[in-house]
Specification:
The radius of gyration is 24 Å and the shape is elongated. With 379 residues, the chain is α/β, with parallel strands linked by helices. Helices cover 34% and strands 22% of the residues. It has helices spanning 4-17, 59-69, 105-121, 156-168, 205-214, 253-258, 275-286, 301-315, 320-328, 344-360, 367-370, and strands at 21-31, 40-44, 49-51, 75-80, 96-104, 125-130, 139-142, 172-178, 181-190, 195-199, 218-223, 239-242, 267-270, 294-297. The protein has three domains: 1-83 and 94-106, no CATH class; 122-193, no CATH class; 195-360, Rossmann fold (3-Layer(aba) Sandwich), CATH 3.40.50.720.
Amino acid sequence: MTDLEGILPLWSELEATGAEYVLASVVAVEGSSYRKPGALMLLAQDGRRAGTVSGGCLEAEVARRAWWLTANGPVVERYSTAADDGERPYGSGCGGAVHLLLERRQTAGPLFIALAEAFRRRIALSVATVLEGPAIGSRAIAGLSSAQPDSVLNDSALLRLAQQSLQQKASIAQPVIAAGVESRAWADYRAARPGLWVFGAGDDARPLVRLARELGWFVAVADGRRNLATQARFPAADSVVVLPMEDQPESLAGLREAASGILSRDMAVAMTHSFDQDARMLAVLLSLEFDLAYIGVLGPRLRTRELLLEAAALLGVGDREARVEAWLGKVHAPTGLDLGAATPASIALSILAEAQQALTSATGLPLSQVRGDLPAPRP
């Protein structure tokens, strides 16, 4: 979901030593491309790199040329993955082209500061960047006022573009006046880092946590069993919380406090294998003031209905049957896609696949059914 999981540690190390680096950002694509606009790759002078701008076909070529291309400042370079003469540059078969903004620490540094803060705080931001002309590499950032680069504080047109992108929750490409010249600019909308709350610390939760962290998501584990909800059992988790099930037997207040870090559009899975725990956590999740992107419940749908009836009782709902029917339309039960999963790891994959689909509002269909990049047959 995000390149920053691997990029930020390398950036922090380079910044700590004052080492120079090159940032490559995908700012546009033509035709088919493995990575989309917004993808990042960080290059260190000692050959280390983090992130990708293609499926592996362009990285070596970009790294080979990046240092001399940026010797005089930021540049935008076009890398084709298909050639008119039938040859495939860089050993690629993607059949498209990517436009990369290449820049060094001077202009990339303020961007990284903003990205790191947004990543840590899990908030959205939009970054408007000038892609040509004398102001190439100048930026305005909406969403993090404290991270605004000094070079663009007075560039109202660029800042308005960033604010428009943030408001629309979409990336926008359009010309702006920068340094007195009309120039191409691109506002990159970067959604908040997704969060997955795993309510259940059994053995089946462990592969779910590991895979979610591989996606770069924030992952929290919560359970009322102290012997299971430990950082030692879930070393990859960002947070491990012991739920106050015994301390608050008649009230949801303690559970609401434990779940106070949940943000709008986060995801949650109830998989404690305890009816009481699952019912109480569903009561908390379904009574939030905002909708989550995904709520999954492990187990058969009949059990979920019973859980929801108990949750309605805990919340003092009047017409419980009607409320449960409405809730059944919100929760994914049983959680996961039909992938033939039978092991904890494959079940975790099926859950994350469905959560990813809900997060992005994608179709969930095979790409062979939704992609239109093949030419129509000739008559």
